[in-house]
Protein backbone atom coordinates (compact mmCIF):
# COMPACT_ATOMS: atom_id res chain seq x y z
CA UNK A 1 0.00 0.00 0.00
CA UNK A 2 1.41 3.41 -0.97
CA UNK A 3 1.85 6.13 1.61
CA UNK A 4 -0.54 9.08 1.41
CA UNK A 5 2.23 11.22 -0.07
CA UNK A 6 3.00 8.58 -2.71
CA UNK A 7 -0.68 8.13 -3.54
CA UNK A 8 -1.17 11.86 -4.03
CA UNK A 9 1.99 12.09 -6.11
CA UNK A 10 0.87 9.19 -8.30
CA UNK A 11 -2.44 10.94 -9.04
CA UNK A 12 -0.69 14.24 -9.77
CA UNK A 13 1.78 12.54 -12.13
CA UNK A 14 -1.06 10.94 -14.09
CA UNK A 15 -2.85 14.28 -14.47
CA UNK A 16 0.35 15.94 -15.64
CA UNK A 17 0.89 13.18 -18.20
CA UNK A 18 -2.65 13.66 -19.52
CA UNK A 19 -2.08 17.40 -19.94
CA UNK A 20 1.19 16.76 -21.81
CA UNK A 21 -0.66 14.33 -24.09
CA UNK A 22 -3.16 16.99 -25.14
CA UNK A 23 -5.97 17.01 -22.58
CA UNK A 24 -7.47 20.42 -21.87
CA UNK A 25 -8.20 19.33 -18.30
CA UNK A 26 -7.97 16.14 -16.25
CA UNK A 27 -8.37 14.64 -12.84
CA UNK A 28 -7.19 11.38 -11.30
CA UNK A 29 -8.31 9.44 -8.28
CA UNK A 30 -6.30 6.76 -6.52
CA UNK A 31 -7.94 4.31 -4.10
CA UNK A 32 -6.54 1.35 -2.25
CA UNK A 33 -7.72 -0.89 0.56
CA UNK A 34 -6.47 -3.80 2.58
CA UNK A 35 -8.59 -5.89 4.93
CA UNK A 36 -8.44 -9.05 7.03
CA UNK A 37 -11.61 -10.95 7.89
CA UNK A 38 -11.81 -13.96 10.20
CA UNK A 39 -15.02 -15.97 10.51
CA UNK A 40 -15.93 -18.88 12.77
CA UNK A 41 -18.92 -21.21 13.00
CA UNK A 42 -19.99 -23.54 15.80
CA UNK A 43 -16.81 -22.79 17.70
CA UNK A 44 -14.43 -23.69 14.86
CA UNK A 45 -12.43 -21.50 12.52
CA UNK A 46 -14.18 -21.30 9.17
CA UNK A 47 -12.25 -18.78 7.09
CA UNK A 48 -9.38 -16.30 7.20
CA UNK A 49 -9.43 -13.90 4.29
CA UNK A 50 -6.92 -11.22 3.42
CA UNK A 51 -7.60 -8.91 0.51
CA UNK A 52 -5.61 -6.02 -0.91
CA UNK A 53 -6.38 -3.94 -3.93
CA UNK A 54 -5.57 -0.61 -5.54
CA UNK A 55 -6.99 1.27 -8.48
CA UNK A 56 -6.25 4.52 -10.23
CA UNK A 57 -8.76 6.27 -12.45
CA UNK A 58 -8.15 9.03 -14.99
CA UNK A 59 -10.73 11.40 -16.47
CA UNK A 60 -9.75 13.74 -19.31
CA UNK A 61 -11.52 16.58 -21.09
CA UNK A 62 -10.98 17.72 -24.65
CA UNK A 63 -13.27 20.67 -25.04
CA UNK A 64 -16.66 19.44 -23.88
CA UNK A 65 -15.82 15.85 -24.66
CA UNK A 66 -14.67 13.60 -21.86
CA UNK A 67 -13.71 10.02 -21.14
CA UNK A 68 -12.54 8.06 -18.14
CA UNK A 69 -10.55 4.88 -17.67
CA UNK A 70 -9.08 2.97 -14.74
CA UNK A 71 -6.41 0.39 -14.03
CA UNK A 72 -5.17 -1.70 -11.12
CA UNK A 73 -1.66 -2.06 -12.51
CA UNK A 74 0.58 0.78 -11.31
CA UNK A 75 3.44 -0.02 -13.70
CA UNK A 76 4.60 3.24 -15.40
CA UNK A 77 4.27 1.67 -18.85
CA UNK A 78 0.68 0.67 -18.08
CA UNK A 79 -0.16 4.18 -16.87
CA UNK A 80 1.33 5.70 -20.03
CA UNK A 81 -0.91 3.45 -22.11
CA UNK A 82 -3.83 4.46 -19.88
CA UNK A 83 -3.29 8.13 -20.75
CA UNK A 84 -3.09 7.47 -24.50
CA UNK A 85 -6.26 5.36 -24.49
CA UNK A 86 -8.20 7.89 -22.44
CA UNK A 87 -7.21 10.75 -24.77
CA UNK A 88 -8.27 8.69 -27.79
CA UNK A 89 -11.60 7.79 -26.16
CA UNK A 90 -12.35 11.41 -25.32
CA UNK A 91 -11.80 12.42 -28.94
CA UNK A 92 -14.60 10.07 -29.98
CA UNK A 93 -17.02 10.91 -27.16
CA UNK A 94 -20.13 13.06 -27.71
CA UNK A 95 -20.07 16.63 -26.49
CA UNK A 96 -21.61 17.32 -23.10
CA UNK A 97 -22.32 21.00 -22.32
CA UNK A 98 -22.26 20.26 -18.59
CA UNK A 99 -18.99 18.30 -18.46
CA UNK A 100 -15.96 19.73 -16.70
CA UNK A 101 -14.00 19.95 -13.50
CA UNK A 102 -15.38 21.70 -10.44
CA UNK A 103 -15.21 25.53 -10.47
CA UNK A 104 -11.61 26.50 -9.76
CA UNK A 105 -12.57 29.33 -7.42
CA UNK A 106 -14.43 26.91 -5.15
CA UNK A 107 -11.66 24.32 -4.66
CA UNK A 108 -10.44 23.54 -1.16
CA UNK A 109 -7.27 25.58 -0.70
CA UNK A 110 -6.83 25.29 3.07
CA UNK A 111 -5.10 22.58 5.05
CA UNK A 112 -7.23 19.43 5.19
CA UNK A 113 -9.28 19.16 8.40
CA UNK A 114 -8.07 16.52 10.87
CA UNK A 115 -10.87 13.99 11.34
CA UNK A 116 -9.05 11.20 13.26
CA UNK A 117 -10.14 8.50 10.78
CA UNK A 118 -7.05 6.26 10.94
CA UNK A 119 -6.23 4.03 13.90
CA UNK A 120 -2.56 3.04 14.09
CA UNK A 121 -3.49 -0.24 15.77
CA UNK A 122 -3.96 -3.26 13.49
CA UNK A 123 -5.02 -6.47 15.24
CA UNK A 124 -3.35 -9.76 14.34
CA UNK A 125 -5.45 -12.56 12.79
CA UNK A 126 -5.26 -14.43 16.11
CA UNK A 127 -6.86 -11.46 17.87
CA UNK A 128 -9.59 -11.29 15.24
CA UNK A 129 -10.24 -15.00 15.70
CA UNK A 130 -10.56 -14.59 19.45
CA UNK A 131 -13.05 -11.76 19.02
CA UNK A 132 -15.09 -13.76 16.52
CA UNK A 133 -15.13 -16.78 18.85
CA UNK A 134 -16.30 -14.68 21.79
CA UNK A 135 -19.10 -13.09 19.75
CA UNK A 136 -20.42 -16.39 18.43
CA UNK A 137 -20.12 -18.12 21.80
CA UNK A 138 -22.10 -15.35 23.49
CA UNK A 139 -24.81 -15.58 20.82
CA UNK A 140 -25.07 -19.38 21.09
CA UNK A 141 -25.27 -19.13 24.89
CA UNK A 142 -28.59 -17.27 24.75
CA UNK A 143 -31.37 -19.74 25.74
CA UNK A 144 -33.41 -20.65 22.67
CA UNK A 145 -30.60 -20.30 20.14
CA UNK A 146 -30.28 -23.62 18.30
CA UNK A 147 -27.82 -23.03 15.46
CA UNK A 148 -25.34 -20.52 14.13
CA UNK A 149 -24.49 -18.91 10.84
CA UNK A 150 -21.23 -17.80 12.41
CA UNK A 151 -19.39 -14.94 13.98
CA UNK A 152 -16.70 -12.76 12.59
CA UNK A 153 -14.23 -9.96 13.13
CA UNK A 154 -12.48 -7.77 10.60
CA UNK A 155 -10.04 -4.93 10.28
CA UNK A 156 -9.18 -2.79 7.29
CA UNK A 157 -7.45 0.31 6.02
CA UNK A 158 -8.30 2.40 2.95
CA UNK A 159 -6.66 5.40 1.29
CA UNK A 160 -7.91 7.86 -1.28
CA UNK A 161 -6.08 10.57 -3.25
CA UNK A 162 -7.45 13.07 -5.75
CA UNK A 163 -5.59 15.44 -8.06
CA UNK A 164 -6.95 17.86 -10.67
CA UNK A 165 -5.25 19.81 -13.43
CA UNK A 166 -6.52 23.13 -12.08
CA UNK A 167 -4.81 22.98 -8.74
CA UNK A 168 -6.28 20.57 -6.22
CA UNK A 169 -4.35 17.71 -4.63
CA UNK A 170 -5.30 15.88 -1.46
CA UNK A 171 -5.29 12.48 0.19
CA UNK A 172 -6.63 10.84 3.33
CA UNK A 173 -6.78 7.43 4.99
CA UNK A 174 -9.25 5.62 7.21
CA UNK A 175 -9.41 2.39 9.18
CA UNK A 176 -12.22 0.08 10.22
CA UNK A 177 -12.78 -2.50 12.96
CA UNK A 178 -15.90 -4.65 13.12
CA UNK A 179 -17.48 -7.60 14.92
CA UNK A 180 -20.61 -9.56 13.96
CA UNK A 181 -22.65 -12.63 14.78
CA UNK A 182 -25.67 -14.31 13.15
CA UNK A 183 -27.64 -17.14 14.75
CA UNK A 184 -30.88 -19.11 14.51
CA UNK A 185 -33.45 -19.86 17.17
CA UNK A 186 -36.13 -22.55 17.20
CA UNK A 187 -36.31 -25.69 15.10
CA UNK A 188 -37.62 -26.88 11.74
CA UNK A 189 -40.05 -24.62 9.91
CA UNK A 190 -40.31 -22.42 13.00
CA UNK A 191 -36.67 -21.31 12.91
CA UNK A 192 -35.95 -17.59 13.09
CA UNK A 193 -32.73 -15.82 12.18
CA UNK A 194 -31.24 -12.52 13.34
CA UNK A 195 -27.87 -10.87 13.69
CA UNK A 196 -25.92 -8.03 15.28
CA UNK A 197 -22.80 -6.14 14.30
CA UNK A 198 -20.75 -3.10 15.14
CA UNK A 199 -18.22 -1.17 13.07
CA UNK A 200 -15.97 1.73 14.10
CA UNK A 201 -12.89 3.63 12.97
CA UNK A 202 -10.87 3.06 16.18
CA UNK A 203 -10.71 -0.21 18.09
CA UNK A 204 -11.27 1.51 21.44
CA UNK A 205 -14.77 2.51 20.31
CA UNK A 206 -15.81 -1.06 19.38
CA UNK A 207 -18.49 -2.83 21.41
CA UNK A 208 -17.29 -5.81 23.42
CA UNK A 209 -17.60 -8.98 21.35
CA UNK A 210 -19.80 -10.73 23.93
CA UNK A 211 -22.23 -7.78 23.86
CA UNK A 212 -22.51 -8.06 20.07
CA UNK A 213 -23.12 -11.81 20.29
CA UNK A 214 -25.68 -11.55 23.10
CA UNK A 215 -27.58 -8.94 21.12
CA UNK A 216 -27.72 -11.26 18.09
CA UNK A 217 -28.95 -14.19 20.15
CA UNK A 218 -31.65 -12.24 21.94
CA UNK A 219 -32.90 -10.77 18.70
CA UNK A 220 -33.25 -14.22 17.13
CA UNK A 221 -35.08 -15.70 20.14
CA UNK A 222 -37.44 -12.72 20.35
CA UNK A 223 -38.67 -13.49 16.82
CA UNK A 224 -39.90 -17.01 17.68
CA UNK A 225 -43.56 -17.99 17.29
CA UNK A 226 -44.68 -15.07 15.11
CA UNK A 227 -48.40 -14.40 14.81
CA UNK A 228 -50.44 -13.22 11.85
CA UNK A 229 -51.66 -9.64 11.70
CA UNK A 230 -54.95 -8.56 10.18
CA UNK A 231 -54.79 -5.95 7.44
CA UNK A 232 -55.62 -2.35 8.19
CA UNK A 233 -54.34 1.19 8.69
CA UNK A 234 -52.27 1.62 11.82
CA UNK A 235 -49.20 3.31 13.34
CA UNK A 236 -45.82 1.78 12.48
CA UNK A 237 -42.77 2.22 14.71
CA UNK A 238 -39.39 1.78 12.98
CA UNK A 239 -36.46 0.42 14.98
CA UNK A 240 -33.37 2.66 14.64
CA UNK A 241 -31.38 0.01 12.80
CA UNK A 242 -33.82 0.04 9.85
CA UNK A 243 -35.44 3.47 10.19
CA UNK A 244 -32.46 5.05 8.46
CA UNK A 245 -33.71 3.55 5.17
CA UNK A 246 -36.45 6.21 5.19
CA UNK A 247 -33.79 8.92 5.20
CA UNK A 248 -32.05 7.03 2.41
CA UNK A 249 -35.15 7.38 0.23
CA UNK A 250 -35.26 11.11 1.00
CA UNK A 251 -31.64 11.49 -0.07
CA UNK A 252 -32.27 9.52 -3.25
CA UNK A 253 -34.79 12.19 -4.20
CA UNK A 254 -32.42 15.06 -3.34
CA UNK A 255 -29.36 14.18 -5.42
CA UNK A 256 -28.65 16.51 -8.29
CA UNK A 257 -28.62 13.93 -11.11
CA UNK A 258 -32.17 12.81 -10.19
CA UNK A 259 -33.36 16.42 -10.09
CA UNK A 260 -31.64 17.21 -13.40
CA UNK A 261 -33.31 14.18 -15.01
CA UNK A 262 -36.63 15.20 -13.45
CA UNK A 263 -36.95 11.71 -12.01
CA UNK A 264 -37.50 12.55 -8.32
CA UNK A 265 -40.65 12.59 -6.21
CA UNK A 266 -39.28 15.78 -4.60
CA UNK A 267 -39.11 17.86 -7.80
CA UNK A 268 -41.57 20.53 -6.67
CA UNK A 269 -40.68 20.40 -2.98
CA UNK A 270 -37.69 22.74 -2.62
CA UNK A 271 -38.25 25.06 0.33
CA UNK A 272 -41.38 23.21 1.40
CA UNK A 273 -42.14 21.71 4.81
CA UNK A 274 -41.87 17.99 4.08
CA UNK A 275 -41.79 17.00 7.76
CA UNK A 276 -43.13 18.29 11.05
CA UNK A 277 -41.18 21.27 12.39
CA UNK A 278 -39.65 18.99 15.03
CA UNK A 279 -37.66 17.07 12.40
CA UNK A 280 -34.14 18.15 11.42
CA UNK A 281 -31.78 15.95 9.36
CA UNK A 282 -28.05 16.70 9.28
CA UNK A 283 -25.25 15.69 6.91
CA UNK A 284 -21.90 16.03 8.71
CA UNK A 285 -18.80 15.02 6.72
CA UNK A 286 -16.54 16.47 9.42
CA UNK A 287 -17.66 14.25 12.30
CA UNK A 288 -14.59 13.02 14.18
CA UNK A 289 -14.10 9.28 13.61
CA UNK A 290 -17.28 9.21 11.52
CA UNK A 291 -17.76 6.12 9.37
CA UNK A 292 -18.32 8.26 6.27
CA UNK A 293 -16.30 11.35 7.17
CA UNK A 294 -14.05 12.95 4.56
CA UNK A 295 -12.02 16.18 4.36
CA UNK A 296 -13.06 17.02 0.77
CA UNK A 297 -15.59 15.82 -1.78
CA UNK A 298 -15.03 13.78 -4.94
CA UNK A 299 -14.12 16.88 -6.95
CA UNK A 300 -11.82 18.60 -4.46
CA UNK A 301 -14.40 20.97 -2.99
CA UNK A 302 -14.60 21.75 0.74
CA UNK A 303 -17.25 19.98 2.78
CA UNK A 304 -19.26 21.21 5.74
CA UNK A 305 -21.98 20.26 8.19
CA UNK A 306 -25.35 21.04 6.66
CA UNK A 307 -29.03 20.64 7.52
CA UNK A 308 -30.71 18.72 4.70
CA UNK A 309 -34.04 19.17 6.48
CA UNK A 310 -34.19 22.20 8.75
CA UNK A 311 -37.15 22.12 11.15
CA UNK A 312 -39.12 20.19 8.58
CA UNK A 313 -38.13 22.21 5.51
CA UNK A 314 -36.20 20.83 2.51
CA UNK A 315 -33.21 23.19 2.23
CA UNK A 316 -31.73 22.32 -1.18
CA UNK A 317 -30.32 19.70 -3.53
CA UNK A 318 -27.14 17.63 -3.26
CA UNK A 319 -25.07 18.74 -6.25
CA UNK A 320 -21.94 17.65 -8.03
CA UNK A 321 -20.58 20.10 -10.60
CA UNK A 322 -22.25 18.57 -13.66
CA UNK A 323 -25.75 18.50 -12.18
CA UNK A 324 -25.20 21.98 -10.72
CA UNK A 325 -24.39 23.34 -14.18
CA UNK A 326 -27.44 21.63 -15.63
CA UNK A 327 -29.64 23.25 -12.98
CA UNK A 328 -27.94 26.64 -13.11
CA UNK A 329 -26.73 26.31 -9.51
CA UNK A 330 -23.44 25.92 -7.63
CA UNK A 331 -22.03 22.54 -6.49
CA UNK A 332 -22.60 21.84 -2.81
CA UNK A 333 -19.58 19.68 -1.91
CA UNK A 334 -21.53 16.43 -2.27
CA UNK A 335 -19.69 14.92 -5.24
CA UNK A 336 -18.84 11.24 -4.79
CA UNK A 337 -16.27 9.46 -6.89
CA UNK A 338 -15.31 5.92 -7.72
CA UNK A 339 -12.23 4.75 -9.55
CA UNK A 340 -13.69 5.39 -12.99
CA UNK A 341 -16.53 7.36 -14.48
CA UNK A 342 -17.82 10.81 -13.73
CA UNK A 343 -18.64 11.87 -10.16
CA UNK A 344 -22.11 11.40 -8.80
CA UNK A 345 -23.67 12.99 -5.72
CA UNK A 346 -24.16 11.60 -2.24
CA UNK A 347 -24.01 12.21 1.48
CA UNK A 348 -21.66 11.32 4.33
CA UNK A 349 -22.58 10.93 8.01
CA UNK A 350 -26.30 11.61 8.18
CA UNK A 351 -28.48 11.70 11.27
CA UNK A 352 -31.95 12.76 12.29
CA UNK A 353 -32.00 14.93 15.38
CA UNK A 354 -33.77 13.29 18.34
CA UNK A 355 -37.25 14.24 19.45
CA UNK A 356 -38.43 14.81 23.01
CA UNK A 357 -40.30 11.60 23.82
CA UNK A 358 -38.79 8.27 24.79
CA UNK A 359 -39.64 5.29 22.59
CA UNK A 360 -42.07 4.12 25.28
CA UNK A 361 -43.80 7.49 25.34
CA UNK A 362 -43.86 7.58 21.54
CA UNK A 363 -45.94 4.40 21.40
CA UNK A 364 -47.89 4.79 24.67
CA UNK A 365 -51.17 5.69 22.93
CA UNK A 366 -50.92 3.01 20.20
CA UNK A 367 -53.82 0.62 20.68
CA UNK A 368 -52.73 -1.61 17.83
CA UNK A 369 -49.69 -1.11 15.65
CA UNK A 370 -46.39 -2.58 14.50
CA UNK A 371 -42.80 -2.29 15.72
CA UNK A 372 -40.73 -3.08 12.61
CA UNK A 373 -37.21 -4.50 12.96
CA UNK A 374 -36.66 -5.87 9.45
CA UNK A 375 -37.54 -4.62 5.97
CA UNK A 376 -37.57 -6.92 2.94
CA UNK A 377 -37.44 -6.08 -0.76
CA UNK A 378 -37.08 -2.73 -2.48
CA UNK A 379 -40.62 -1.75 -3.49
CA UNK A 380 -40.03 2.01 -3.50
CA UNK A 381 -40.70 4.20 -6.54
CA UNK A 382 -38.27 7.13 -6.53
CA UNK A 383 -40.33 9.05 -9.09
CA UNK A 384 -43.76 8.86 -7.43
CA UNK A 385 -42.72 8.19 -3.83
CA UNK A 386 -44.95 5.12 -3.59
CA UNK A 387 -43.66 2.83 -0.85
CA UNK A 388 -44.37 -0.87 -0.29
CA UNK A 389 -42.03 -3.25 1.51
CA UNK A 390 -42.16 -6.60 3.23
CA UNK A 391 -41.54 -6.38 6.96
CA UNK A 392 -41.18 -8.31 10.20
CA UNK A 393 -41.11 -7.23 13.82
CA UNK A 394 -43.52 -7.14 16.73
CA UNK A 395 -47.13 -6.31 17.43
CA UNK A 396 -47.83 -3.25 19.57
CA UNK A 397 -50.93 -3.59 21.73
CA UNK A 398 -52.09 -0.97 24.21
CA UNK A 399 -48.76 0.85 24.09
CA UNK A 400 -46.54 -2.19 24.68
CA UNK A 401 -44.39 -4.26 22.33
CA UNK A 402 -45.66 -7.84 22.34
CA UNK A 403 -45.71 -10.86 20.09
CA UNK A 404 -43.48 -11.31 17.05
CA UNK A 405 -45.04 -10.86 13.61
CA UNK A 406 -43.82 -11.81 10.15
CA UNK A 407 -44.96 -12.00 6.52
CA UNK A 408 -46.47 -8.54 6.48
CA UNK A 409 -46.34 -5.66 4.02
CA UNK A 410 -46.34 -1.99 4.95
CA UNK A 411 -47.27 0.63 2.36
CA UNK A 412 -47.79 4.34 1.90
CA UNK A 413 -46.39 7.30 0.00
CA UNK A 414 -43.11 8.80 1.12
CA UNK A 415 -44.43 12.35 1.22
CA UNK A 416 -47.37 11.30 3.39
CA UNK A 417 -45.03 9.24 5.57
CA UNK A 418 -42.63 12.15 6.03
CA UNK A 419 -45.45 14.47 7.10
CA UNK A 420 -46.60 11.94 9.69
CA UNK A 421 -43.11 11.09 10.99
CA UNK A 422 -42.25 11.62 14.67
CA UNK A 423 -38.79 10.84 16.15
CA UNK A 424 -38.07 9.57 19.67
CA UNK A 425 -35.18 10.79 21.84
CA UNK A 426 -32.94 7.69 21.59
CA UNK A 427 -30.55 8.75 18.83
CA UNK A 428 -27.23 6.86 18.95
CA UNK A 429 -24.35 7.15 16.47
CA UNK A 430 -23.61 3.59 15.37
CA UNK A 431 -23.78 3.64 11.56
CA UNK A 432 -23.06 5.90 8.64
CA UNK A 433 -26.71 6.97 8.76
CA UNK A 434 -28.39 7.21 12.17
CA UNK A 435 -31.94 7.86 13.30
CA UNK A 436 -33.80 7.48 16.59
CA UNK A 437 -36.87 5.28 16.90
CA UNK A 438 -39.42 6.65 14.41
CA UNK A 439 -43.22 6.58 14.47
CA UNK A 440 -45.34 7.00 11.35
CA UNK A 441 -49.13 7.00 11.69
CA UNK A 442 -51.58 5.99 8.99
CA UNK A 443 -49.61 3.31 7.18
CA UNK A 444 -51.40 0.53 5.35
CA UNK A 445 -50.53 -2.92 6.72
CA UNK A 446 -51.32 -6.15 4.88
CA UNK A 447 -51.03 -9.37 6.86
CA UNK A 448 -49.85 -12.70 5.49
Automatic annotation (TrEMBL):
Transmembrane segments: none annotated. Residues 329-358 are annotated as: Disordered. Residues 34-90 form the Metalloprotease TldD/E N-terminal domain. Residues 119-224 form the Metalloprotease TldD/E central domain. GO terms for cellular component: cytosol. SUPFAM superfamilies: Putative modulator of DNA gyrase, PmbA/TldD (SSF111283). GO terms for biological process: proteolysis. Residues 231-447 form the Metalloprotease TldD/E C-terminal domain. One of its GO terms (molecular function) is metallopeptidase activity. It comes from the Bacteria. Belongs to the peptidase U62 family. PANTHER family: METALLOPROTEASE PMBA. This is TldD/PmbA family protein.
